[in-house]
Design brief:
Blueprint lengths: L20 H8 L3 E5 L2 E4 L1 H20 L3 E2 L5 E3 H7 L1 H4 L6 E3 L5 E4 L4 H11 L8 E10 L14 E11 L2 H21 L4 E5 L9 E8 L5 E6 L5 E3 L20 E4 L6 H8 L7 E7 L5 E7 L6 H8 L5 E2 L2 H8 L15 E5 H4 L4 E4 L5 E6 L1 H4 L4 E3 L17 E16 L1 H5 L3 E3 L5 E3 L1 E8 H11 L1 E2 L2 E2 L10 E5 L4 H16 L4 E3 L6 H11 L3 E5 L1 H4 L4 E5 L5 E4 L1 H12 L8
Parallel strand pairs: 3-7, 15-17, 17-20, 27-28, 27-29
Antiparallel strand pairs: 1-2, 4-6, 5-6, 7-8, 8-24, 9-10, 10-21, 11-12, 11-21, 13-19, 14-15, 14-16, 18-19, 21-24, 22-23, 25-26, 29-30, 30-31
The structure holds one RNA strand.
Length: 573
RNA sequence: CGGGGCGUAGCGCAGCCCGGUAGCGCGCCUGCUUUGGGAGCAGGAUGUCGGAGGUUCAAAUCCUCUCGCCCCGACCA
């Protein structure tokens, strides 16, 4: 393409609305423009990247035996009422009514629609397994859309749904998708890690997230070096401490700790380290019950784990009023000793402690030399805290490490959650009506593009991985002499005919402007054509990632670039 | 939903406190010169100052309401 023919409105200055790097660069490079909060138009350059990612996804999904279809963006409320998600999904589900006042919603995901299709069309186990996918615009009315394409309200997603006759076959379908996802993100040129994940609102029994590793990621993952364990901290297991404190119990004692509300303040005041203290978190269930959760002072509670144990989903920390009612003390002094009528559960790190410090259930008072077997009763010791770097890996002798990631893919083994709710059955070999075992698998296409930038950029602009770059080669004639223009035209024609995707900056701009725009757009290879080089009979090929420049005779450019591209499995857009 | 911030030319901003009828840089258009890392000179176009209401002789500026956008947080004792 010629730059003068392609709509690439680059900006010298970053619009004030953009904070994160991918958002800033996409705006500056003329890839996207905002229409409303979390809603964007994809301009030609941005769309090229999306199409490439989609192409890789299609190839790998097809290869894995999934077939493409396309469901509507709008779906009728009745389907969502069947699974209960019309109410459960909350405000994130954008609703609307047609002229007959019938309720519809903009699909945030499509389990209901596909399951409805399945139950209408599939009769026999002979038709299974089946796996269908689509690449489509989704809408989720996020509380706070942000970071450009990273967390938009409208976004492009590939979603796939598998239906199997039995558990074993379903696991196989799941594994096929998992493997396909590894190929997809590898082919996109991204550094990523698959981690065990929480199933959240979607539900199901097993789940992995695919995380693109980047400092700016919103998710935290932990993993061990040898690769035997990797998980989102949301659910990462923490093994019990290997050793228990064997100290003899000392006499319980109340001490005055005026004005010390936080763990740090208490520890500083009593001159003990935080791992000698147990904090008492009072949680409230939707029905108003209060439960005390004991966590070692230097640890963080993990609400997903607590929810899972209690079988709830909307646990919140008790407000100040409830705290003072339950513990008869202001916030900051709750403790397990003498708490009446309240369930007490504790992280298993607490079980290993002796003679620890807790709140005194009285203003400005803490208790020291507390022991759980003697001074209060714990209903259960279990894994309730957040994993962190340095913790023991649950699967190996290694210590866990932490990293930040951007969730670009998520696979779920759903089981019969939706097939049961919607009565999606088939006849098995014995003629029995049987519920289909489902899986669902998503990839954020637009988010993957943003994640690729977060992971691959420098201070001048984007540095696209070759397979998803909007163009392979950026031609930069830097002077306007006849020989330069002629050489550029010849190289453009020959490379384009050979199948390279070439962007030819044919604008009447100064060299600096072209160089800067080229660095911003981030095609992997730049070719500078100028009188200075041509006087020596050469043009200059620059790698965007390393900045390395090699002089080449014009005739050698095509074979050289072809050689550079030959190691990649490029999408055919 | 709570808190903070911002809406003035295509983009980045100043002007607002202290009311007097709108400016700077970049970009854009024309011409000349220039031409290997964001050119120079000269000329030019572009604004219902987010919207509505109010105060006032007079409102970008003060007051009220409203819409939109960005950031942080959503109770971690």
């Amino acid at each position: 393409m010629r730059t003068t023919r392609l709509f690439i409105p680059t900006l010298r200055q970053t619009p004030g609305e953009a904070e994160v790097i991918s958002h800033r660069l996409m705006l500056r490079a003329g890839m996207i423009r905002k229409v409303a909060a979390g809603i964007y138009t994809y301009l030609p350059l941005g769309l090229r990247v999306l199409k490439k990612i989609e192409c890789i996804i299609r190839q790998e999904m097809n290869r894995a035996g999934a077939q493409e279809l396309l469901m509507p963006i709008l779906s009728p409320a009745e389907l969502w009422r069947e699974t209960g998600r019309w109410d459960f999904y909350g405000k994130e589900l954008l609703r609307c009514q047609d002229r007959h006042d019938r309720d519809f919603c903009f699909g945030p995901t499509h389990e209901e629609v596909i399951t409805d299709l399945f139950r209408r069309e599939i009769r026999s186990y002979r038709q299974l397994p089946m796996n269908c996918y689509q690449i489509q615009t989704k809408f989720r009315d996020e509380i706070r859309p942000r970071f450009g394409l990273m967390r938009g309200r409208e976004f492009i997603m590939k979603d796939a749904y598998s239906f199997d006759a039995d558990e074993e076959s379903a696991r196989l379908s799941y594994q096929k998708m998992y493997d396909a996802y590894e190929r997809i993100f590898t082919r996109c040129g991204l550094t990523f890690r698959a981690v065990e994940a929480d199933t959240g609102l979607i539900g199901g029994s097993m789940s992995h997230e695919f995380m693109v590793l980047a400092e700016t990621g919103e998710e935290t993952i932990v993993y061990d070096e040898r690769g035997s364990y990797a998980a989102n901290v949301e659910l990462a297991e923490v093994p019990p401490p290997p050793e228990e404190d064997k100290a003899a119990p000392l006499a319980l004692e109340a001490v005055q700790t005026p004005g010390t509300k936080t763990v740090q303040e208490v520890c500083a005041f009593l001159k003990v380290s935080p791992n000698r203290l147990v904090k008492t978190l009072l949680y409230q269930t939707p029905t108003g019950d209060v439960i005390a959760v004991l966590i070692r002072g230097d640890h963080e509670a993990n609400e997903i784990k607590i929810n899972r144990f209690l079988g709830t989903t909307v646990l919140t920390l008790a407000n100040a009023e409830t705290v003072s009612k339950v513990s008869s003390a202001p916030v900051g002094f709750a403790g397990p000793v003498g708490l009446k009528g309240i369930r007490i559960i504790a992280d298993h790190a607490v079980k290993a402690m002796r003679n620890f410090v807790v709140g005194g259930n009285k203003n400005d008072t803490h208790l020291i030399n507390v022991n759980w077997d003697r001074d209060f009763t714990v209903e259960a010791f279990l894994d309730l805290r957040q994993a962190r770097a340095g913790d023991q890996s649950p699967r190996s002798a290694d210590r866990l490490q932490e990293a930040k990631g951007i969730e670009v893919g998520h696979v779920f083994l759903l089981g019969t959650k939706y097939s049961q709710a919607m009565n999606a059955t088939f006849l098995d070999a014995d003629g029995q009506e049987t519920l289909a075992i489902m899986g669902c698998y998503g990839i954020g296409v637009s988010r993957t593009a943003a994640a690729a930038i977060e992971q691959n950029h420098d201070d001048k602009g984007m540095v696209w991985p070759v397979p998803i770059a909007p163009f392979h080669l950026h031609l930069l004639p830097v002077t306007a002499s006849e020989q330069v223009v002629k050489t550029a035209g010849m190289l453009y024609d020959s490379c384009t005919e050979a199948g390279l995707e070439v962007l030819w900056d044919d604008r009447d701009e100064r060299a600096g402007v072209k160089f800067n725009d080229a660095d911003l757009i981030g095609a992997p290879f730049h070719l500078t054509i100028g009188d200075r080089g041509l006087a020596q009979g050469v043009v200059e090929l620059k790698r965007r990632d390393t900045g390395e420049v090699v002089p080449l005779q014009p005739a050698d450019v095509l074979p050289h670039v072809q050689e550079l591209l030959s190691s990649y499995d490029l999408p055919a857009v």
